[in-house]
Fold these 2 entries.
Entry 1:
Amino acid sequence: MKDARGDYHKGPVTLRGKRVPGSTTDQRLLDNSGDAEWVHSDPWRVMRIQAEFVEGFGALAELGDAVSVFGSARVPREHPTYELGVQLGRGLVEAGFAVITGGGPGLMEAANRGALEAGGASVGLGIELPFEQGLNEYVDLGVNFRYFFARKTMFVKYAQGFVVLPGGFGTLDELFEAVTLVQTRKVTSFPIVLLGCDYWAGLLDWVRGSMLPAGTIGAADLELLHVVDTVDEAVRLVRGSGEDQAARRPE
Ligand SMILES: C/C(=C\CNc1ncnc2c1ncn2[C@@H]1O[C@H](COP(=O)(O)O)[C@@H](O)[C@H]1O)CO
């Protein structure tokens, strides 16, 4: 609406001069003619983003203790690392955790499969991709996201820790998002476990041999990553942190 000075106010936004629209918001709302391009505009995008958060929070609020598992979308079922993923899903459920993955194929499917077969909650947070394959068949609670950043919030908000299986760029993105949140203390008591010493050795060497001497991380930051070779060790590390959190929880 226009004020006495002729300024046009649209929520917190003030428009002046040639930016003042020739029609009011109500006029545009009630005018059914014209093209439908507006549904693809940023304000509508914000509504869809909000809806993703609301739906994600609603679906996961009662999940209970959970661990997010990341790993390659490309590892086939016959590969030994797939079996490691199945065992991880199983081990986490036996330790009392729900398992949250990206809901896709490969090692996500493996962890969901282990979780489901062990009788636990098996969550898949799917993402809309051009080459999307849908949720894997071992997900029993699935939420599909259009936006990576909304989905990432769910991985952190509803988990007590992360276990990271071998993976590519997607897995590294999720790993370093978590590391940054812990490093900047946006989340606390949040173990990040890399499962597969051989696979992760090169990355860890580079972190120690290049990042540390360059001063882009501190020595204490190295402690943020736990690298292990067995499911038992991974589960022990995330369970340990769960106990820390329980001890600090108010009565
Ligand atoms: C590549 C293929 C399918 C991709 N489908 C995905 N579905 C769900 N989540 C995915 C998918 N691809 C990547 N992600 C996320 O990134 C991580 C795996 O990425 P990487 O590059 O394979 O390591 C994973 O944790 C997901 O959250 C068809 O083969």
Note: The pocket of LYK5OOP5 is lined by residues 70-74, 102-105, 108, 126-127, 129, 131, 133, 167-171, 174 (CB under 6 Å).
Entry 2:
Amino acid sequence: MAASQVAERVQELHLDDNGRGPGSESPERVRNLNIVFIGHVDAGKSTLCGHLLYLTGNLDERTLEKYEKEAKSKGRESWKFAWALDLTEQERSKGKTTDYGVASFRTATKHITIIDAPGHKAYVPAMISGTGQADVAILVISARKGEFEAGFERGGQTREHAMLAKTAGVRQLIVVINKMDEPTVQWSEERFREICDKLAPFLKQIGYRPQEVSWVPVSGFTGENLREPVHPSTCAWYKGGSLLQVLDALKLPPRPLDMPVRMTVVDRFRDMGVCILGRVEAGTIRSGDRLLLMPPRLVVHVTSITMDAEEVPLAEPGDNVKLLVKGVEEDDIHSGQVLCAENDPVEATTTFDGQVMLVEHKSILTAGYRCIAHIQAAAVEVVFERLLAEVDRRTNQIVKKHPKFVRPGSTFIARLSVAQPVCVTAFKEFAPLGRFMLRDEGTTIGAGVVLRIPSQRAKSETNAVVYPDTNKTGADGP
Ligand SMILES: Nc1nc2c(ncn2[C@@H]2O[C@H](COP(=O)(O)OP(=O)(O)OP(=O)(O)O)[C@@H](O)[C@H]2O)c(=O)[nH]1
């Protein structure tokens, strides 16, 4: 699905009133929380999303019956909830999500936008775009015998997705152990614990602190423990809240309202004029504002702002919005660009120093190596110009200067250059524009944070290599 179809999808789902009418000004308005569903193929992400929409009144009986009939006619009856998000023919006939789907619902305290990311390996770039917009990730694990194991082993998407979520800066993780109803599981505490015990050390290793992770057993298919806590006659040992209760209790991430505007561009299309889809990372955008599109440095006039198919007067950090704009042509706009405050734009660069964690790579890596860097929604070719230092990940101290090569598993600092200018900032100055992921031949090989932009060295008055805040790397670093 092109991201331009997102708005149509949201409308098709008969969404509830989202409380964002013209009078709903900050700070009283209900705050939005973006949640991405990630996990191995067939873990049950789409089913879970569809069932949550149903239980929150955003998927009516009639539509569900329609999906059920259509699914049955294709021999895929059990897929009826998944069809609420898997809307393309290709997705339905294959039973696989190929691009991320978006919908939203309300809980007692929050407006929640859900992003259903595809699980299949081939669709990781779409998953990266989806995750880049999220505040919270729900890592869906199938408890079914053999399925957890297949997803968690090397090459499975459980590890890769969790790592990508961490690198994309998603601080809160909810691990949903799904398919608890399945005959090989039957709400077994032993199976639940076995999965938690295997996953927890891995999550810690990639940087999630135990207090950032919640664990919830559910059945996306029967709906147990989604809205109401699971009945003790089905599961006597689980004493925590239902998935919606856990979501309701989450703290909202801080919103940098007072910073200059930064909105990452995810897509563009034409609909009564030129439209830009993206996520506000900092500042407040009001209709009537003039912004600067970087890197091309074009002035953009915002004529209206739409969120969840409803016009709103302003957009704040964390909001995924559609801007109707004047002053630019559709062809001027590309994913990965950043809309900025006109008097304080982010600069574009083709060179930056980054601290990289090389996770999976078939051999050693040397200067001159090329791969694809995902920087916000942009995918650009990147070259490792120079290896500057190898770093001990735990202490963040340099262990070797100017290494000739680095091995898989190592953390190092390198000077990187990209084919086209990109908008990045040092991670410690503004984290949302300071992260990147590296992929080669369809595999995620590493992740990194921007340490500095060499041309800006004079400003920082130092020639020394600058590191991310050591205290922060455990939580925010790659
Ligand atoms: N028994 C049982 N089956 C489930 C549950 N959740 C999902 N399934 C089944 O698992 C299969 C895959 O479900 P999907 O929701 O399409 O999985 P997905 O993770 O979205 O898959 P991709 O979109 O391909 O990544 C379908 O046959 C579902 O009916 C569950 O809680 N219990």
Note: The longest strand covers residues 378-391.
